């Protein structure tokens, strides 16, 4: 399987594995979300972006429709935020400061 296909199937499979533990099918409740964050994210840099220790805050950030659960669309937003964070760490690009300009692009005096 191609790498991108692997990533896509992994995201779907991870969501479904945890979403079917308890509560409504195809949605993550607080306990399920906490398990995902604790077990599937090991990098300290990414853990800092969504704090599994403060699950209330994570739910608030992810649960855009305020139904008390995270659906697949909301979960994908979470994955996207983490991917962007990792990209920024690897490239040094994409931060909020100087948006649209790369470091070193400023004219020298």
The count of β-strands is: 0
Strand content: under 5%
CATH architecture annotation name: Orthogonal Bundle
Briefly note the CATH topology name: Recoverin, domain 1
Shape: globular
The name of the CATH superfamily reads EF-hand
Query: How many domain units?
Result: 1
Report the average pLDDT across residues.
80
What sequence of helices (H) and strands (E) makes up the elements?
Answer: HHHHH
GO molecular function: calcium ion binding; calcium-dependent protein binding; transition metal ion binding
Region (Disordered): 89-109
Organism: Dicentrarchus labrax (European seabass)
Protein name: EF-hand domain-containing protein
Helix and strand arrangement:
Blueprint: H1 3-19, H2 30-40, H3 44-49, H4 55-62, H5 72-91
Helix pairs in contact: 1-2
